[in-house]
């Protein structure tokens, strides 16, 4: 990587909490009616197609309107979830009861992501468009223990970060930036020091939307950008030219990417585009080996209106190479998961009772618990329903339909 931030330029700052990659659904409003005048709605009874999930716990993160933009959880016997909020703060919750553990304040710009340290659940990192990455030690309260930033001498302003990630061994941090005078930067720090190690700025030509280290290979890094490229780097190499291993052209704008280990052959990379398509690539392939258009995703969701369907996140399941896709439709009242396995897309689960437009999620592949957060400021914990819970929910829905079947759809 290039050392000492050579070639750094003054930063542009964006303070709009809706300008991140989760803003694709901004502007929608929740309504209870599932089949409104625009022709949207279900093509079939969800209970007959999907396995049902039930809402276990739900908590509002603030008294005023605050969006949940990002989340990350620690995978331990006593898991915690960190959420990044639109008021420039972060909050830590116990997963099982959704009780608040700590509030972290200190950023002066939108929090673009939050991560637990891979090896220590008491350490939390948060990155912001203010150009800083803060390390929080939950054992000492809400005071930042370290701050990482590009403070090289020729940097007039800090570069506005758009995302970040931590290497699997917990040693290195990488932060991606917006486009700054024709350059988009990947910046690197060693967590043992707050000094900038260096960066890459020749591989992307537009805003970097996501930075993603491989889950088991600390030197392997993937990045995605609105320039349509997913780049794979070996950061152990001495310079950017040698580090760039593969540049994958999605021919779209990259919103979110993720690594998925496979039983044999190359690992898999998922790409969610800003046009709500899903692409799956091998880490050594020149083309995606499978693509699902927004139309195909809408059909698998059993929905009528393609334009109302959105992808929230892609998650790893207990089956290697399988992708769990969290999707939403309508005005947020429809929240469903789809499974991608052996190049096929099929309906999986329906989460009935969602009250908000979901922006972010976390999935525990062992317990199948799902956490969601979004524009209503609600942190929601879901789990697979038992047969008795599913039967009860179906009966209640049928009774409500019979009770109101003679009522007009428009109350006035």
From TrEMBL:
InterPro entries, per the entry: WD40/YVTN_repeat-like_dom_sf (IPR015943), WD40_repeat_CS (IPR019775), WD40_repeat_dom_sf (IPR036322), WD40_rpt (IPR001680), WDR89 (IPR039328)
WD repeats by residue range: 104-146, 201-236
Any one Pfam family match given in the protein's UniProt record, by short name: WD40
This protein's record includes keyword Metal-binding: no
Ranges where the record places region Disordered: 1-46
Keyword DNA-binding: no
Composition-biased stretches (Acidic residues): 30-41
Keywords assigned by UniProt, alphabetized: Repeat, WD repeat
Source domain of life: Eukaryota
SMART domains: WD40 (SM00320)
Protein name per its UniProtKB record: WD repeat-containing protein 89
